[in-house]
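Sample pair:
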Amino acid sequence: MTTDREHDTGSSSGGSPGGSGTRRRRGGGGRTEAVAGSTSRTDGGSADVSGSAAEGSTDTRLGRVGGALADTGVRPLDVVTYGLYGIAMLFFAFPVLWIVSASVRPEGALLSFPFRLLPRAVSVTAYQRVFREGMVTWLFNSTLITVVGVGSIIAVSVPAAYAFSRFRFRGRRQLLGAVLLFQMISSIVIIVPLYSVMTSLGLVDTRAGLVLLYVGIQTPFSIWLLKGYFDTVPEELDYAARIDGCNRLQTLRHVLLRPVLPGIAVVAIFNTVFLWSEFVIAYTVIGSERSLYTISIGIYEFQSQFGNDWRAIAAASVVGMLPLVVVFISLQRYFVKGLIKGSLKGQ
């Protein structure tokens, strides 16, 4: 019997030549324990059988992470989606952060190496130069032209959009098509004839001439946009107002303006951004009169054939962005609501 037991022991230990595999031994309490070892290969190497155990532990950790996300109600797809949102936000925010950083860098440290988004030292000399060159005047001109221009565009577009939405008259579709066709023509293409007309009318180098051009160029777009909002308002409101004794103008003023207020906010934001940052038409009409410069023309003053003052350009850009940020934050809730409402008819 002893010989048979020794034979079994020898065969179990010699089953793998030159090494010891995973064996089981009996403990003192009758338990069977697994002993992990290294298995010798025929080429003289050894294979660690604990690798499969490590892979199993990694799968276990991933399973635990997935289970934790499931317990919190967060799906892996949501994590990926928000991660892509974060990357997109960084992509669009980086130029703005770089402009702010460049505006406060000392002279000679604009393109320092290694790259640092936060400069080691802060300097406001670029802002001082910008305001010495006439930033206050540029801001005043831009504000005046933008406020008067946007107000005029809305005053013309709202009644026109109301008429196209509510009235049925001969040639209505053709006239709408003509408005859309005019919007498709770039203002750069017709800038030369526009300048000739403005010169003959004596409106060159005047704010009024620039405002009139902006109103004529942006009104078709605004009419089409506002017409979509008027189409979402039920016509039963018009009938109820007429029964109460309101005429067309009173119906528009007292009944329909409030439902289309988000659309008016969207038009105001779009036109504010365009009028505030437009350069080509403004430079063509008032470019020869320095006292009439807008913010976009003023920024162009820091560029020349001999060199560009990038720090001053960045500082002027930062100052020019602040009013737009204030306007967008003030009208943000109307803007988002208007974009959603204008895309759904009958809502």
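The chain has two domains: 71-123, 133-342.
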